[in-house]
Write the structure tokens for this entry.
Amino acid sequence: MERVSFDMEFLFRASPTILYKFFTEHSAIIRWFCDQCEVEGDTYTFSWDGADEIAEMVDDIEEERVRFKWEDADSDDEYFEIRFSRSEVTGETILEITDFCDEDEVEDQKRLWESQIEKLRVASGG
């Protein structure tokens, strides 16, 4: 199955400063993304129901962008990235996500991200 990228966009009342922490600090990550998270340097080990997935943070521009590459990704070109910006009109934070999945799983992955983002919204107050 061909791997494809997809993008999603969400609006938050929380600032980029607050949201950035929810993608980089293990104590905040476990509040919305996974059951456990260990961070050693740029290596993040995310755990769900006892299964570990390892990702390396390959790009980090504070309050602007965070990019991770999964250790077991199908391609070196795959990543998941989160970008933060401010809406000039409303002042809200725009959270943009780029991720990769199998071509036939895009809708399922989008639903998963929507579910996770709702947890992030509650955890961040945004």
